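Our consortium's second objective concerns turning raw sequence data into structural hypotheses that experimental partners can test. To show how far this objective has progressed, the report includes one record in full. It was chosen at random from the queue rather than selected for favorable results. The single chain below, 529 residues long, was entered without modification.
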Amino acid sequence: MIGSRRVTGDRPPSPVGEEGLLGSVRVAVDEARTGRWEALNRLVEVLLEVDAVGDEEAAWSALALVAGMPELVVRLDEHARSAPWRGEYQESAVRRVSARLSGDTPGPVATVLASMHGDGRIRERAVATMTGRPRAEAMPFLVLRTADWVKPVRDQARAGLAVLLADDPAVHLPAVVPVVLRLEARLRAGFAVAQVRAAVFAATEQVWRGLLDSGGRRQRRFVFDIVLAQGSLRLPDLVALAESDPDVRVRARAAEAACREAVWTRRLDALERLARSARAEVRVVALTGLVRAGQDAEVAAYLDDDAPLVRAVARDAARRLGTDAREHYRSAVGTGEPASGAIAGLAEIGSVADAPLLRRLLGHEQVRLRAQAVRGLRLLDAVGVAEMAALLRDPSPAVVREVTAALRPVAGALPPALAWELLRDGRVELRRAGYRLLRGRGVGVELRAALILAVDADPRLAERGTADATRITRDAARTAWHRTPQPPLRVTGTHHAELVTLAARAAAALGAETSQQLTGWLTDIRPGG
């Protein structure tokens, strides 16, 4: 069992270093994050090896590696409850944990592992030990027990969590919040969530700012919502979050709060600053604030913005000023170097009569303008099949994507061999375009294209082809209780032979079961029937 003995000068150095057991724990943690139950068992065994050394601080260091990954803590607990800890661990590790916990000074590892034991009395003793000698590294494991299915265990853990969060939130909140957010879906997790929310609400500015500046997206959203409701964030804080926070939801909510306060306090400088943000969701909120502040002239200057919502707000402001937004766009697009937002704006409110203005941009040297012109013609329903087909081999993948989207509704008017040529082209974006243009052409065409793509050199295209070929094959093999029958596969003898060849070539990608189903289906088909 682990005591609190120290390593003296007469003893060899502790083997629990980065080059020793602690390094093994790090490796086991990495494997257990995504591994199956064997990897979780291995992690437990390595932790017990650290426990056997008797170095308490080293044991806490090992537990810190596990506690720093809340998703692993939850997985380990679920594993313990569902297995319970199969194989060797069930027969030996459980016994070792129980024996060490019954000692006078159970070590950190034994205590934490015992808190996930199948026996409620052992879990209760472990919880008492964790609350009696609190450490941040053990807090995630204590949180799990606040949702325990045994009431005495649950009540003791809840009491301990409430006291610890009240006594020292700066130490315990950072360790508790991540695992609580992953525990929300559990049946009895409401208490822990409520306690953490109350602790954050009552925390000092230094504490909640530390939580807001660290952790993942869920933690930042959780803390931000609390301090925003509390009114702890001042206008400069909200502006800074709206401009620089990595999460779009936090940026948008911070922008809304900042603009609301700026309108109330007539801080036009803050609204103008946010209106210049690189983030569209921030600009649109700021421009809405400027509209409410009566600054329509400033807002109308954003008619050529890249973001659709920003352009819509600007057009509304322009209408109140008596400005004809359509004429503005026509004039802007008629210049030599129009903004891409002006092209998009003309497509949004223009008509087929404006198509010539966009067609002259199809050969523009700037990729962005060519792509935007193609998209505009599609939105105006002014797609010319010949002119678009000529752009299918454009050097830019962005233009190829837009041209493909424009041609899909009229793909039947293209030369029959064009899509197949694209599907075998050396450029990835052209193969993708060819595949998209072949969709909706019937089961035989789709299956043939999917089998070609299933062995493509590009992993993403191969995955797409494999998935579609599998879907078509399984739809064909489905039983009579399905309401919608699979359309019959009608192919010529030449195409049937090609399908058989393609199916054999794609067998490894499709897998044994799907390949066997496909082979049987093709065998039953009579070519020309």
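The partners drew two points from this record. Confidence is low (pLDDT under 50) at residues 1-14. Residues 47 and 270 are 53 Å apart (CA to CA). Both points have been shared with the crystallography group to help prioritize constructs.
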